Task: structure prediction
Amino acid sequence: MRTLIFVPESAPPAKVAQILLFGAQVVAVRGTYDQAFDLCAAACAKHGWFNRNTGTNPYTREGKKSCAFEIAEQLAWDAPDLVFVGTGDGNILSGLWKGFAELVALGLCDRPPRMVAVQSGESTSIQRAFDAHAALQPVSGKTIADSISVSIPRDGDAALRALRDSNGFAVAVSDDELLAAMRQLARSEGVFAEPAAAAALAGFVKAREQGRVRSTDRVVLVVTGSGLKDVASARKAAGEPLVIEPELGALDALVRTGRLQV
Result:
C-alpha cells in the first residue's frame, strides 16, 4: 500500500525517521500542523486519494475505541471513575468515549467513566470552549507537545460531546508541567512518554490539586506515545549528562564538588 504522509516541517525528527523507515513518502510542509492537515485534505479531494485524517475518516474513531475495550477488560469490566487523555484534535477522547458507551449499551459495564481532556500550552481550544459553554474557536496551538499542538481541533465537536455526555471536564497544563510529568512517569513508573502522552499525568496532578479528583476515585491515565518519538523534549525534561575526560581524577572532582551524587 502506497502511503503519503503530510507533516509540519517542525515535526520531531525521530517521528519523521520512523515514518520514512516504514516506507511511507513524507511531505514536510513549511507551516503548522493545521496547514499540513488542510493541504493533505485538499490533495485528497483533487486526486481522489483515500483520506485517513483524524476528524475526517470515521475509521480512526472506531480504531481508538478499542482502547476502551482493553481498559474495561483489564479492570474486570468495572469501568474506572475517571479517564485522563492528552487531547489535541480530540479523536482519541471521542473514540474512547464511544467505546465505553458501547460497553454500557451492551451490558458489559454498569456505567461509563467520566472523561477528562488535557490540553497544553496555548493549544487549548477544547478546554476553553468547554469551560465557556461556547463553540470551538481557533487558538495559537503553541506547545512543546507536537502531537496535541493544533489550532482548531478536527474532532473537537465530538470531544466536547464526550465531555458533556460523560459529565467530565477539561484541564489545561503548562509546558513546564508536561516536562515535570515526563520525569515523574519515567522515574516512578518506568514509562518513557513523549510530552503529549505525559499530558494525562500532568492533567491528573492539576485536577487533584484543584479538588476535582476524590481520594476514592479509580483513575486511568492514557499514555499515548513513546518518548523516543521526541528525544529533544525528553532532553529538556531530563537535563544534560556530565561530561568528563576518561580519568579517575575527573570523576573524583565531580564527587568532591557535589555535582555527582553517590
